[in-house]
Design goal:
Archaeosine Trna-guanine Transglycosylase, Chain: A, domain 4, five-stranded mixed barrel, globular, alpha+beta, about 210 residues
Length: about 210
């Protein structure tokens, strides 16, 4: 059972996906406090993306964020000098923010009121997702200069592979956020295929234009 509120960690370039791991270095005072409190409690942190034009370390205490984020469980924590931490989060479940708690008791970080988003896959989506995975592998072969079948763990569930690629491929943060907001792995996979096909077309068109010059 997920809590109705979470500490949130807004970052300008990072989007966390369910069942994907994320290493973090925590050094800012408010997030050192957030991490210490999380470790003393349920070890959960909500990762959210800052909206463009805003930075997490500005004087604005609550810069605007996208309302769809992902809960992360601290699976590894290394305490460093001066209260800093190295963490590893594992994405658990998407959520929607629908408000924030008021700061209280000297709390420096933000806490959001959230509703979890269930992305449990329907049995009917398994076959189409398997086909989408094969298409993804085809599109990634030119990028990785080799057969993707030998590079991707074939025993990884299709939905976990889709989420891992969405997080770690070289997409813009807003593109990753759009992928996170897609409802379920099949829709996310289809959108990722569209993105990769579009980028391949643009690269081809740019190359052709350069050759004509």
């Amino acid at each position: 059972m997920f809590p109705s509120s979470l500490p949130i960690f807004p970052l300008p370039t990072v989007v966390l996906f369910p069942n994907v791991f994320l290493p973090l270095h925590i050094f800012e005072p408010r997030y050192r406090q957030m991490t210490a409190d999380a470790l003393a409690g349920d070890r959960l942190i909500g990762m959210v993306l800052l909206r463009p034009g805003h930075q997490a370390d500005t004087t604005d205490e609550r810069p605007p964020v996208y309302v769809t984020g992902c809960t992360g469980l601290i699976t590894h924590a290394e305490r460093l000098d001066e209260g800093r931490f190295n963490l590893v989060l594992r994405g658990l479940e998407k959520f929607t923010m629908h408000g924030e708690e008021d700061p209280a008791n000297g709390r420096l970080y933000r806490r959001a009121l959230i509703t979890p988003i269930d992305e449990t896959m329907a049995a009917a989506d398994r076959g189409p997702l398997k086909q989408c995975r094969h298409r993804l592998e085809e599109l990634l072969e030119p990028i990785f200069e080799g057969t993707m079948a030998s590079r991707l763990p074939q025993n990884m569930p299709d939905e976990d592979l889709v989420n891992a690629l969405a997080q770690y491929l070289d997409f813009d943060p807003i593109e990753k956020q759009a992928l996170l907001e897609r409802m379920g792995p099949l829709a996310r996979c289809r959108s990722m295929i569209e993105l990769l096909e579009m980028k391949a077309l643009l690269k081809h068109a740019t190359g052709d234009a350069g050759m004509r010059h």
